[in-house]
Amino acid sequence: MPESAVEAVFREERGLLLAALVRRFGDLDLAEEVTSEAIEAALVHWPVDGVPPKPGAWLMTTARRKAVDRLRRDQAYAARLAVLQVEADRAAPAPSPDGELPDERLQLFFTCAHPALPAEDRTALTLRCLAGLTTPEVARAFLVPSATMGKRIVRAKNRIRTARIPFRVPDADELPGRLPGVLQVVYSIFTEGYAASSGPDLQRLDLAEEAIRLARILRRLLPAEREVAGLLALMLLVHARHDARTGRDGDLVLLDDQDRTRWDRAMISEGAALVLVALTGGPPGLYGVQAAIAALHDEAPDVAGTDWPQIVGLYDVLRVLAPSPVVELNRAVAVAMRDGPAAGLALLDTLADDPRLQSYAPFPAARGELLSRLGRLPEAAAAYRDALALAGTEPERAHLRRRLTECTSP
């Protein structure tokens, strides 16, 4: 099996393996350590013996043996070993309404959404440990430096240990209270799949599709929760464009230039139907409003025919529901499409001092685009240089280099 395929197996199996081990042994640090050791063992044995028919089962068996060996050697854990199976049985998940057991990773997402942990800490911990994102990828989701995020994850793990927070699936009446944190985790996984933080590829389709799969399970388990419908709608409507977001050579293709015949119309129809569910029966929610914006993009014949006034209005709602610099950035771009680049640039300039945007590549990239449209090419070039220094993936950098060349060539 090629090295890239082996890496794909590890990426796919790691989350499942870690979730199962946490539920089995009730110790996140132990589960992380033996998961890493099992993968290291696979890197030694698989090139010689070949990849086993069921690589996930091989990794699980290896990790469990290493965990048991470690517990037996460690006297501090010796007394716990005898009762672990009893605790695991007690923490076993209840069947879903349709009789299917929920996904183990999803169980652990709800477990880590414990109210004793600060909201940002528990989301960061879940993304890093259970969703398998790297610390820089999690940091990008929160617009903070990697070092800050690393400290936050360590703090959350220490809090779980010192407060003796149990790793158990919450009761049914606890699920709604923990749902917002779980939705944020699933959406952050999707975001990393839709726009990767780093690497040779613009998208990580495996992550995007995994997030959609988890959202479908949530929708099945909690059909009355409108924000679950909103999140699933949002991801479907955005993911429907994935095939058109890159060219044959993997280069970035902006929304203005995408071939809309390559958009997945069945996915768009499903997402649009879910938008109606998300926006009916009560005040609009965060994901429902974002899904409505995505639906307007997907339903438009082209960029010029997009209902930009309505999109700006929806961003006005969103900035009240969930104020953030990214919302303000996206709203400014929509205003530029409605009222012209000067109006959008004026709004972007009011955000220039926000420290959360100073390491966020889309911000200087958006400024560069609007400055270019206004004919202010030296300023546009400077903005594109700033964006180029921050861009994480090669397709983004290639696009920004082209835009920079266009601004500096005679």
The tally of helices reads 19
Unreliable residue stretches? 81-101
General shape? globular
CA-atom Rg in angstroms: 23 Å
Distance between the termini: 50 Å
Q: What percent of the residues sit in helical stretches (DSSP H or I)? A: 55-70%
Q: Helix/strand-derived class? A: mainly alpha
Q: Mean pLDDT score, rounded?
A: 85
- Biggest sheet record: none
For the secondary structure, the number of strands is 0
What portion of residues belong to β-strands? under 5%
Order of helices and strands: HHHHHHHHHHHHHHHHHHH
Domain RNA polymerase sigma-70 region: 10-75
InterPro entries: DUF6596, RNA_pol_sigma70_r2, RNA_pol_sigma70_r4_t2, RNA_pol_sigma_r2, RNA_pol_sigma_r3/r4-like, WH-like_DNA-bd_sf
Pfam families: DUF6596, Sigma70_r2, Sigma70_r4_2
Protein name: RNA polymerase sigma factor
Q: Any overview of this molecule?
A:
- The structure is a single chain.
- With 410 residues, the protein is mostly helical.
- Helix content is 70%, strand content 0%.
- Among the domains are: 92 residues, no CATH class; 137 residues, no CATH class.
- The protein has 19 helices and no strands.
- α9 packs parallel to α11, α11 packs antiparallel against α12 and α12 runs antiparallel to α13.
- It is globular.
